[in-house]
Amino acid sequence: MLQCESIRVTYGSMRALDDVSFKVPAGDVVAVMGESGSGKTTLLRVIAGLVMPDRGSVSWEDRTITSDPAHVRRFGLMFQDYALFPHLSVGDNVAFGLRMQGRDAAERRATVDRMLALVGLAGYTGRGVSELSGGEQQRVALARTLAPQPQLVLLDEPLGALDRARRDQLLADMQRIFSELGVTALYVTHDHNEAFAIADEVVVLDSGHKVAEGTPSDLWTNPKHVAVATLLGFPVLRDVAVRGGRAVVGGVATPVELADGVYHLAVPPGSVVIAAGGAVPVEVHGRRFEDGSVTAVVDLDGVQILAAAPDGVALGRATVRVDTTALVVVDG
Amino acid sequence: MKERKNRWLPWSLAAVPIAFFGYFFVYPLLTVLVTGFTSTGTATNVLDVLARPSLRGIAWFTLWQAVASTVLTVLLALPGAYVLGRYDFRGKSLTKAAVTVPFIMPTVVVGGAFLTLLGPDGPLGIDLRRTIWSILIAHVFFNYAVVVRTVSAAWERLDPSLRAAAASLGADRWRTFRHVTLPLIRPAVASAASIVFLFSFTSFGVVLILGDLVHSTIEVEIWRQATTVLNLPAAAALAVLQLVGITSVLWFYARYQARQAVQSHVAAVRTSAARPTGRRQRTIVAVNLAAMALLLGTPLLTIVARSLSTSGGWGWANYSALREPTNALFVPAASAIGNSLKIGLLAMALALLVGMLAAWAILRAGTRFGHSLDVLIMLPLGTSAVTLGFGFLLALDRPIDLRTSFWLLPIAHALIAVPFVIRTALPVLRSIEPRLREAAAVLGAAPRRVWQEIDLPIVRRALLVGGAFAFAVSMGEFGATSFIARPDVPTLPIAVYRLLSRPGAATFGQAMAASTLLMIVTAAGILVVERWRGGTAQEF
Fold first, then answer.
1. Which of 1.10.3720.10, 3.90.700.10, 1.20.1250.20, 3.40.50.720 would CATH assign to domain B1-12+316-540?
2. Is the pTM of this model over 0.80?
3. Burial class (CB in 10 A: 0-12, 13-18, 19+), B504
4. In chain A, which residues have their Cβ closer than 8 Å to the Cβ of B1?
5. Coil, strand or helix at B445
6. pLDDT tens digit string along A134-171?
7. How far is A225 from chain B (nearest CA, A)?
8. For A87, which of B1, B444, B458 is closest by C-beta distance?
9. Is a pLDDT exceeding 90 seen at residue B403?
């Protein structure tokens, strides 16, 4: 089990990570999700041993490893841009970690073949890395990371540079490979689809702070924080005042089941629908045809919201029905 | 935040290069400076020397011939740079390699070539020896490559869409050149011109042979004062004067280099060269190539031809005569070949060792320390070799007298060659993404192993190129060598010079034969460079 305790990293006067603690239980895949600049890559580099934290500790199986150099940790790190060694062949890239461990040539060859087969690149051993496509490079990087049987696999936006079709394919492959090898992994991404697809548990970072943590379904039903809602693609109505069981939404007092106070309300998909005779007047700015149905882009209290709409929806004035029971309170 | 880094590593890496440059470069040079300012003699100090009309004349000649050489070289080389920068054609890389050959030719060979070409028996039939023209032409021949290679590289990197954009905005061909192309290549032209100026300003071998002391640069005069007139204070004072001139040129060069770094962002495209289309473009390319072949090929061919012509027609007599002892040398000229090869290989090994350590130190050090180290090690490139050789003679008698040591020449040559090693290795080392080293570390490679598995294999080719350069530099070095070579251990350039300075057709033929051998060995070194250079860029 990996355990991070109150990690702090500062770059000059900026705090890239501040008081971040979390665990990765053995055999689990944990995703770290955050916008760019949230500190997620720095966190990965701290765990890998490439960055020394100013404060806090990293421990593995109850042993503190904070000041161990990278090369003795036996963690695997897959870089965002893969960082394949340009002067080595595919096979030599994959064998690198095994060579560092002093494995003999026969064993190296066998492991390389097995790993390349696992990632679907059997027979690529002798190729140069520069002749590979982006997807193939990604697979070689994965094989290189897994070959020395790391105790923990760290992945930094591993699908970031790929197009969507390839991404889905590789995501499925990675899931299969991770469960086949029983890998413990930390997966860094900004994409909630990726995080939710692969992770047992998700940690969300915002400006260097941990703002939420939970299973994918926990986070989806209760995003808890504006940053999480934003990553999930939920628009957020900020500073909505509630008094006597009513909130003013779109200029109209709407019943809500909340105590008096001021709230940020996340709007999950489907909770706003364009309907003739809806209670709230809005302005329709745009129209999209997406996944088989029409969606209208409407402006609600200065926030852009996608609302389900009838086929012939016109730009201009319209009314919407807001399902206030679906709105979720989030911290800001 | 602390990136994991060993703070003492750059210092320990730098220790050897700093000691080497401190003792063999800074110390001798300071000794020259101190001698120039303090000693008493017939010419007591810098100011006294400058007051002498004959020396003022030499200073003036040095300056104006350098300006004239620079202007001529730039004007004559620009069309070639245009053709190599704008057009792609079969044999282009071969052309680039061939253009570089004269630049790396030993100065004595170039001097000898023009002595033949412009002599009364030369193909031109006019005697231009001892005239300023022979010196200017030789300087153009010698420095043509600097301008062509630097400027064509800048031209090649120009984004072709910039020209297209100018055209779409209504600029005709001339105005596009005037307002778009020229401003973008100007820094390259300026930095090439600075280098040409520097080389012409400190020209030694060419002026010594072609000027025959009728025309003499400061560099030649330092040598003459120190070795013939034996007026060491005057030589030292001239060396000080020379250093002032060089420093100001280097300052100008550094300023333009800094600007050029900004420019390279503007033009990030790798190459914009296109195949010539239409009769007009094909003619431009053909005419330029023919001109290059004539300008650069003729002098070298002349040497070969003269070396093979004997009193009894064509033959190898001049070559076999190299095995006989002559009164020009204490030993057979052929022994110089072995000396040169031995010294060249030792200088190469030394330059690689020191250059490699320095390059890694510069890479790993912080910007300030790295930059200072970089400047220190580049200094010999801008220091006159004669001054350096003179400094060796003045300074290196204590604590142990190294002046008669066989190692002095390899050390001097390595000093001059180290900048070449660093300039080829550093860009490659810099191009290695830090992530590759990190990836290796995460995969279990300890720091030393990272260096061995990542840095070394990637930079190996560049080191080979740098090593070949070092070898070629050592083979052709004449300025410093003329001071410190022991009479019984001459190098090939020394042998060529001694043979040239003896009258008689026979010794002249032998000089040409030795020149040809020198040319072949040097060219072989350069061929290795061009073959291995491949994709690796060189910071010039």
1. 1.10.3720.10
2. no
3. exposed
4. 9-11, 16, 51-52, 54
5. coil
6. 889 999 999 999 999 999 999 999 988 788 888 888 89
7. 28
8. B458
9. no
